[in-house]
Fold each of these.
Amino acid sequence: MKIAIGNDHAGTRYKFNIIDHLKSTGIEVINFGTDDENSMDYPDTIHPVAEAVESGKADLGIIICGSGNGAAMTANHHKKIRAALCWNKELAALARQHNNANILSIPARFVSLEDSLEFVDTFLNTEFEGGRHQKRIDKIPTDKC
């Protein structure tokens, strides 16, 4: 599995911990995020994550900013992207099960580092249920972006 990851200055510490965690399980990571905590514009690191997932260069994505909102909004402007802002394990599971989310957005200023690792594991290990949920996803237009 290959994961694209991107972050702004608020998510740098989280990103490094998530990368270490993913690599320890044999997952390949493409790092598009900033590596320091100097203020920067999150779209500069989020667009490349969405493009990697959209093109198939990455299987899934993880994006991290202070609230998680700006990152998710940016990613969701890409066709074929369903970025989900998750602040607990249950939302991470439902984002995959019901919405077939392909990017996890983490709000670094509102969740603990330990919890964020749990969200990542849940997101990556939960399968899309399909069925009635696929019908709903099919109604999300990809030609409007």
Amino acid sequence: MGRNHKNLNNKLEEFRKSAGMTQQELSNNANVSRKSINAIENGIYIPSTVLALKIAKILKCKVEDIFKLPFFAMGIF
């Protein structure tokens, strides 16, 4: 499936690294497994709204900075 799920693009890895955090550190702060963070970064798993909000708060950014819908998924061509 690659870095981006067909219905969601994410920049989690970029924001996490910019914050100087490892996957383990982010997962500990978000109360999820490191595998969950890895799966989100690789586009295998789409986080719940609550988890996306937690991650954004931890990384001090907005959810929409990390997770974006491609234009075709929004009906915009």
